[in-house]
Amino acid sequence: MFPSFKFFQVTTDAQILSALRSAENGGVSGADLSERLGISRAAIWARIEELRKLGYDIEASPHLGYRLVNDPDVLHADDLVARLGKAKVIGRDIRVFQETTSTNDVVEKLARDGVKEGVVVFAESQSKGRGRLGRKWISTAGKGLWFSVLLRPDLRPQEATQLTVVAATALWRAIHAETGLSAEVKWPNDILLGGKKVAGILTEMSAELDRVKHLILGIGVDVNQAASEFPPDVRKLATSLRAELGKPVLRAELATAILRELDRDYARVCGGHFSDVADEWEERCTTIGQQVTISIGERRIRGRAESLDDDGALLVRTEHGHLERIIGGDVTLEK
Ligand code: BTN
Fold this sequence. Notes:
Layout lengths: L3 E3 L5 H10 L8 H8 L3 H13 L3 E5 L3 E6 L6 H8 L8 E8 L2 H10 L6 E8 L17 E8 L9 H19 L4 E3 L3 E4 L2 E12 L4 E11 L9 H4 L5 H5 L5 H20 L3 H11 L6 E6 L2 E10 L5 E5 L4 E4 L3 E4 L2
Parallel strand pairs: 4-5
Antiparallel strand pairs: 1-4, 2-3, 5-6, 6-10, 7-8, 8-9, 9-10, 11-12, 11-15, 12-13, 13-14
The chain binds biotin.
């Protein structure tokens, strides 16, 4: 594992990348950067060399100074911080691993070590990525966004579904803003394009009887796989943004768009405004109004999905006329 850490201060790399991106006349001189950052021109040059090694295409010319010509499709903690700007909670500490078992495991350990909420852990690849209901989550190196967020919300355990709803809404919005694609949300955690899954959310929590101690939002987005890169059995069910859009998506840009939306909606939930997020979720959700079958272990519940309740649970009117409150399980839409 080769973690690159970014805590609360903005690093030199983040400042250099911000300055290069906002350069008005196309470039920034070494002297200007050195003055702004309060370090020598030689130190600036050394950092530029390191950024080049990571794949950032930075040109240097006597007239324009340093110019960022091309962004590599890599995840670099400092770059994510530079793109995100100031975060209220989610994204104020961003860490990137080249490889890990599961980012949820890494965040679980951070949670037990007492790390503050808001830390986000990305991995370029996961050897043991997992999905809901014990399923495996394929996390091909460099092709998607595989990340987890640590939260310590002041919620009761039965309200935790609210945060899955928040994550789904944030994902929908970020995907739409970055690609123009309008996804569907399938309760509680699937984001679909053309009926195929493009992103999923795994919410894991540690709780006492009446309080959530911490909650981990694990998010996986299939971004740049070609359709042929999915195993044949998965290909029928899954897609990527690139496959739908016909061109690749810069993961760092999408990642920061998602974090920005999550941070905004988490603040809404903490401020007692979950119903605003729920209204938006209901607009995007293709499950509402449909005949569904919910599988919870061996149990099957059939009925019509009517709405979300105040805690984010799905209310299903069964064939027998009862209203069932569903907080987990697998939803199949009936044709
Ligand atoms: C699902 O749809 O079943 C949820 C998939 C969640 C996958 C993400 S990838 C990042 C995080 N780490 C994991 O092991 N799983 C989640």
